Recover the amino acids of this structure.
């Protein structure tokens, strides 16, 4: 189960401009910063990118879950970005269209694993991914992601 308070229109970028993984992830990190919930965005971004270099978080179906465990946050934060064109990540042939950036408090490993597992199960459904790609407003996007299966 994914806590409902993780999903916020403030943390959602429906039209990512970035053409690289780094640019797209930075756009999402900026959303977290702009909400006032992420105090050190540059440092967090560097941790996420360092983690991505070690092991890509790209899943099947054009979805990625870049994240970092850190003391920079006190609660789980989720930033979401969507790219209609798709973004190449980690040299993979298939492009990524949905990016879920997760800030994980150092001590909340189990909560993180539960959250990512729930997101992965939800996004495994091709119909759900297509609906998220078609959503025209943040409210519609979030309504679709919250929809019971």
């Amino acid at each position: 189960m994914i806590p409902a308070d993780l999903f916020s229109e403030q943390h959602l970028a429906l039209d990512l401009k970035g053409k690289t993984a780094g640019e797209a992830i930075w756009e999402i990190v900026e959303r977290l910063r702009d909400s006032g919930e992420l105090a050190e965005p540059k440092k967090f971004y560097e941790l996420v990118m360092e983690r991505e270099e070690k092991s890509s978080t790209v899943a099947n179906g054009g979805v990625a879950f870049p994240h970092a465990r850190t003391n920079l946050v006190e609660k789980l934060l989720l930033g979401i970005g969507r790219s209609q064109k798709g973004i190449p990540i980690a040299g993979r042939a298939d492009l990524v269209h949905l990016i879920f950036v997760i800030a994980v408090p150092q001590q909340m490993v189990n909560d993180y694993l539960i959250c990512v597992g729930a997101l992965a199960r939800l996004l495994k459904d091709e119909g759900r991914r297509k609906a998220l790609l078609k959503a025209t407003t943040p409210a519609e996007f979030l309504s679709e992601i919250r929809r019971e299966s």
Residues 109-123 form the longest helix (15 residues).
